[in-house]
Design brief:
It is a single chain. With 244 residues, the protein is α/β, with parallel strands linked by helices. The chain is built from eight helices and eight strands; from the N terminus they run ββαβαβαβααββαααβ. Strand 2, helix 1 and strand 3 form a beta-alpha-beta unit. Helix 1 crosses helix 6, helix 2 runs antiparallel to helix 6 and helix 3 crosses helix 4. The radius of gyration is 17 Å and the shape is globular. The two termini are 24 Å apart. The model has no long low-confidence stretch (mean pLDDT 96).
Length: 244
């Protein structure tokens, strides 16, 4: 990514972050969320799974509740209190009507102006391969953001009392290889790291493959510093913007 980034507009009040797993938001996105909550914006989290398949040495029945607890603690660090889990299976998520419907329900309930995703393209901004769960959730959320505004799609949501919502006007995609905008997180990077640190059992479960938390922190700082140079600040998060 060698082009300059444009400053992301922040003329909105309510956002919903939709991701596949606990910890997905904490590798940079949490710093942006800390910035937004400090501005008085209302942010909620919607996670498709509980991340129960994410710790090799722990049975999923034990890992799921533990990872939910860590995610709620992590969200609280950056000022987010509303955290919900949709209960889809970790590692075998499928793009389809059931996932679209559940995300559309969350969008109708929270009524965001901005929806936040992590990258759903085959590769991340640093060139590493993406995961199937991320791709499925991202694509389903893009569709669900439009489904939420159509009363004749998923009619059961009306029966549940969820009126259509067409107010989501922008999707912000974290870690996209096609990032065009940036968010200045200079004052909130440390808070984002503190949010990531709440995932202690998960990070411990990764072992040496991830490196120490300190080593990971250095990697994240290096990436945000590079994006900061493109945005004209010290530390930044690069994002792709999709207009609905």
């Amino acid at each position: 990514m060698g082009v300059e980034l444009q400053l992301l507009s922040e003329d909105w009040s309510v956002g919903l972050a939709v991701v596949a797993h606990p910890d997905d938001l904490e590798y940079g996105g949490a710093a942006a969320i800390a910035r937004w909550t400090s501005q008085g914006k209302k942010i909620a989290y919607c996670l498709a799974t509980s991340g129960e398949a994410g710790i090799d040495g722990m049975d999923p029945e034990d890992a799921g509740p533990l990872r939910e607890k860590e995610e709620r603690a992590s969200a609280s660090v950056v000022g987010v209190q509303a955290v919900e889990f949709l209960g889809h299976p970790d590692g075998t998520l499928e793009y389809g009507l059931a996932l679209r419907r559940d995300i559309a329900r969350a969008i109708r309930r929270h009524r965001p102006e901005v929806v936040v995703l992590i990258n759903c393209r085959p590769k991340f901004i640093n060139g590493t391969l993406n995961q199937a769960d991320h791709i499925a959730v991202g694509l389903a959320t893009i569709d669900a953001a439009r489904d939420a505004g159509n009363r004749w799609v998923f009619r059961e949501l009306l029966k549940e009392g969820h009126e259509p919502w067409s107010g989501a006007r922008t999707i912000v995609v974290l870690a996209s290889p096609d990032s065009t905008h940036g968010i200045d997180v200079t004052e909130h990077f440390a808070t984002g790291l503190a949010s990531l640190k709440e995932h202690s059992a998960y990070l411990d479960g990764l072992g040496e493959s991830q490196g120490t938390f300190e080593e990971l922190s250095l990697v994240l700082r290096s990436r945000t510093r590079a994006a900061g140079r493109q945005l004209g600040c010290e530390l930044a998060i690069p994002v792709e913007v999709l207009d609905l």
